[in-house]
Amino acid sequence: MSNDYKDNKFKELLDKLQQESWQLELLISGFAIFGLITAIPHIRTAMIVAENDRELHIFIPILIAFTACSILIFNLLIHVILRGLWIGALGLRYVSGDIDFEKLNYQNKFTNHLKKKIVSFDKYVATLENYCSVLFAISFLLIFYVISIALILTCIVGIASLIISNDDLPETLRTIIGIFLMIFMLIGTLLVFIDFLTQGYLKKKKWLSKIYFPFYWVFSFLTLTFLYRPLVYNFLDNKFTRRLSFFLVPSYIAISVLISFKNHKTNYLESTKYVSNTYLDTRNYENLLVNDDDFERIATIQSKVIREPYIKLFRIFTEGVENRIYNYNPSLKPKNDKRGFKTDIVMFSSTETMRNRDSLTRKYLEVFNNTHQVYIDTTKFDSDFLVAKNKRKQFGFETYININNLSEGKHILRLKRLRKRTKQKDTVKRTEISIPFWYFKK
């Protein structure tokens, strides 16, 4: 059969599919809900890993995926419930037919009121059908909206970091180009948002439409609107769909506010988690990290109660650690920074290059050991960090502290870091983490 949208046979096919689409809707919703609920824990774990490792470029896409999955699950669950109600209503209609208000034998006041509000059972079935069909379609439209917002924010951040803050470009050039693009993006974002809230008001006024069109044209590519534009305008040309789509966003905001409420049982104890000296954070103890989404915060020791004559201390590696080492010793910073997304397809390193890299790695580790010091209570202990991986396959720095002569009882381990202050041109000592533990000899 021809796929020409002007062909009458093709239109007849679409009409037939439209009438039977509820079966496909239920099938897709069922598989989608199952797949999304299965994927959500893994996405959440990946998001926690990226947040823990402070990898913003990975965290943001995963956060977008998590948000999109959450919206889809919520919408599709409501769709399945409403579609089930619709099927139940059809079954009841087959048995009972339409509502016979006269048989109910109510007083005229109630009969007239019910006739006015309900009208007929067929109208109720038709309304359910409309809600189900629109909700199914709008679920995927909202995902495109989330992606569009994320792309706009990515463009703004990209202009700030790649142009305005790029030291490789001439200062005058990057300032002029960067500020122009930033102003264009901010004005365009504001206009697109206003046009979205007013459901196309800027396109309806002659002089406003001329101003808005260049921004609309650019943003249609930046936000990939051209992929789902027909879906948007098909929603906007109908009063029912327009009202429903406009109602959903405030609903999500209201639901987010409602689920944020929780019962506080104490005025003091819950706040102790921000004071490491008084709170036993499970993320600081390696033996307590048993679930897939349990990850170290900054550093870990083997357990709360230590019976061995040593402490195993592991410091998580993050990009911030390397930046602070470069700040402390600028000579280690390479001219060609290889951090970020790179391909490993073509790799070639000469023996001389490998030898230089090995030498710089030893220097790198030496600077880390010089800038990181281990204290137990007020006493400094010798430490010699080496590069290692923990049970979660995370890179970091590991050392073992001899505590054979330590007295039994409660102690606090502190990992301190030396930091250079640029303006004062001096070095200060900062506590990165404090971990309480108890030591009892075997």
Strand content: 5-15%
Order of neighbouring strands in the sheet with most strands: 2-9-8-4-5
The geometry reads as extended
Estimated helix fraction: 55-70%
Q: Residue ranges: pLDDT <50 for 5 or more in a row?
A: none
Number of helices: 13
Largest sheet: 5 strands, mixed
What's the N-to-C terminus distance? 82 Å
Number of strands: 9
SSE run:
HHHHHHHHHHHEEEHHEEEEEE
Write down the overall mean pLDDT.
81
Radius of gyration: 31 Å
Structural class: alpha+beta
What's the topology here?
Layout: H1 8-19, H2 21-52, H3 56-96, H4 101-104, H5 108-118, H6 121-164, H7 171-197, H8 201-204, H9 206-222, H10 229-236, H11 239-259, E1 299-300, E2 305-306, E3 310-316, H12 319-328, H13 351-371, E4 372-376, E5 379-381, E6 386-389, E7 395-402, E8 409-421, E9 426-439
Parallel strand pairs: 2-9
Antiparallel strand pairs: 1-3, 3-7, 4-5, 4-8, 6-7, 8-9
Helix pairs in contact: 2-3, 3-6, 6-7, 7-9
Description:
This protein has helices at residues 8-19, 21-52, 56-96, 101-104, 108-118, 121-164, 171-197, 201-204, 206-222, 229-236, 239-259, 319-328, 351-371; strands spanning 299-300, 305-306, 310-316, 372-376, 379-381, 386-389, 395-402, 409-421, 426-439. It has 442 residues and is α+β, with helices and mostly antiparallel strands. The strands form two sheets. It has a five-stranded mixed β-sheet. The chain has a four-stranded antiparallel β-sheet with strand order 1-3-7-6, with no helix packed on it. The longest helix has 44 residues, at 121-164. The radius of gyration is 31 Å and the shape is extended.
